[in-house]
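Researcher: Structure prediction, please.
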Amino acid sequence: MRRVAVALVHFPIVDSAGKVVTTAITNLDVHDLSRSCKTYGASDYFIVHPVAAQRELVARICDHWENGSSGKRIPARKVALALVRIVTSLDEAIEKLGGRENVEVWVTAARDVAPPITLKVARERVHSDGKNVLIVFGTGWGLAPEVIAMADTVLEPVRAEVNAEYNHLSVRSACAIILDRLFGAP
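Model: Predicted structure follows.
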């Protein structure tokens, strides 16, 4: 099986009008995605943010859960937060995972942005030999077009059968669902 990491991108992201923006860090995204990554065997959880103050916030959140009162109260979260890697760009995350020549970038989207592969096909690929995989999630209204364009693979959107016209999951939920479909017990 390949080494798989997750990246949560805060820039470049689009807003509801399609404008490229930077989104803010949320506490829940830091520890909830790290817990999903740890549960499903991801090697790293990259939080991508270009603003130093936001990266410092992530470091403070991690420190609170690793060394503060919450870390003492819920030690299992400390183990998950050890996966967090704070980076300034997606390129930096790719470099830390082994460089572009050794990493396949798989992007996610809640809408159709390019011809996707199914999660069933992705599961087969990730369980075979090959390059490291970086699964990229976006905040806001999704990844900017330039991120989609640099991807090696686009994963199909997570969709419900019963309410197909509404598709606006939190990134925490989407990440957990995708990781479960890729690595969950059959």
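Model: The CA atoms of residues 158 and 178 lie 7 Å apart.
Researcher: Thanks, that helps.
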